[in-house]
Amino acid sequence: MLGCAESMFYGIRAQQEAQGPDPSAPTVDAEEWGLTSCLNTLFTSKYTLMKAIDQLPHETEWQLKRITVQGNKPTNDGQCETEDLELRLQDPVDCICELMANPEFDPMVSYAPERVFADMEGKTRRYDEMWTGDWWWEMQGRLAQGAVVAPVILASDKTSLSQFRGDQEVWPVYLNTCLVEHYRLFHYCMSQVLEPLVRAGMDGVDVTCPDCQVRWMYPVVAAYVADFPEQCLVACCMENRCPKCVVGCNEHGDMRKSPMRNRDSTVESLHLHHDGEMGNEQFEGELGLRAIYSPFWATLPHNDIFSCITSDILHQLHKGVFKDHIVSWCSDIIGEEELDTRFKCVFLSVIAGAVDHKVLTAYWTHTEDTLAHMHAALTSFHANKNIFINLGAWEHFNIPKIHSMMHYIDTIRVLGSVDGFNTGLPERLHIDFAKRAYRASNRCDYVIQMTTWLRQQESIHIQDAYL
User: Fold this and answer.
1) What's the count of helices (H) and strands (E) in the chain, helices before strands?
2) pTM for the whole structure
3) Which end of the chain has fewer beta carbons closer than 10 Å to its terminal beta carbon, N or C?
4) Helix boundaries (H) for 101-224
């Protein structure tokens, strides 16, 4: 620790005392503020209410970066058409400092990794929160003595804002709790959004924490939450490949471990292909890479993006392996009615393996025993899966989502239980931060109106917490 400092609320109080208004301004007291925030009373119009909210304290400002994209369609004068895009973002380092300065989080913050055991003898390791996993220990060992790791969890998911106008889309990027409007453009925008993390990740930054202590923190990208197509986009690989390892494109149905993708070798392969020193047969056929020559993660310090890509319980297991495949195959064989009443014994082993793996994966906390059960369940599934081919329900198991189950145990050991990285979380954030913000706009120039609405909601939240 580097010393003591005042929390975010002390700063708000000092600012209000200097300017003169009551802490509950624009209302008389905290009780009246509570009534106003619920019923929007005391104001003659929406305009006066919004003007009052704009006077409330708020933290990280929204920035605008304009990007010009050149297409491949020529105009009448022979030049390629261009399109101007807007990228609206908040500084991720400022967001982290704002989050850490909130004293409400004081009982919930962990500043160092711990090895937790389920038994008194210290033999059965337990994994739940990220600070119980191996990643934090490994990262802490890289930094100078006295430094504190600030693991950054990123999540992105392109989403439609309107139900009947398909062109109204945004591409939100959330930082641990954090909005951007394929391929190379996405990586360029992400590099712009995360650029402040490069210097902060190399040199560290002094952060006032919820306990009012100042710590020397290193914000490092620890996890990236996304569905499978977006995982492949982030990893610069094709969608018939695994974003975490180099398993062959026809080997997804086998229970075998393949070497993990490596950041340095991937960047080198991208450069070699860009310079014409690597042919498409090796670049695309063997490595399964896309021609994205400047990935956003190439400059992030202390980061291996492939180990950061988290397992996705929602799309890989619940909707993927189980609903779209196992249930569908069983329905084709025995019929939906029979499936609803009972399982035939011939299917019991393979279904039990898949279901046990799915249920065990969703545990909030794991030990080496539960991980061993997960491995046994997965082994049972692969040992009995050919029954579906024998009965004509399916032709092969070369399915990326089936292969993804191979990575769950390692991910839990490194990052903790995977329930905290479920893509259901950012999909929920779409409702709160994207769709509701869009509905509050007049549908014209909606992005700037959405950021204004988000800033106002943040001001209301800060005032609620402050009072």
Assistant:
1) 20, 12
2) 0.80
3) N
4) 134-142, 183-203
